[in-house]
Amino acid sequence: MTKSERDIWFPAKKYGWGWGLPCAWQGWLVTLAYIALVAAAIIFVRPSAHLPAFVGVIVMLTILFCLVCWWKGEKPVWRWGNKK
Fold first, then answer.
1. Do residues 6 and 72 touch, judged by C-beta distance below 8 A?
2. pTM over 0.90
């Protein structure tokens, strides 16, 4: 395994654009933190009472999560599966 492969937390999806499930414990930690923060936003920023604030928090968390995936993941390009 090369240094660049060890640094990848989120491998590219086999089909389509983006990243798949994490391949390193750090990636799983970031994913679980994202899920926990979204759950906390649902509990503490009630969507029924403060919809604009709730949407803003979710958008901010999602952008932050995507930036981490971009930084610590493989290059996101459109993939059509394994080439033979």
1. no
2. no
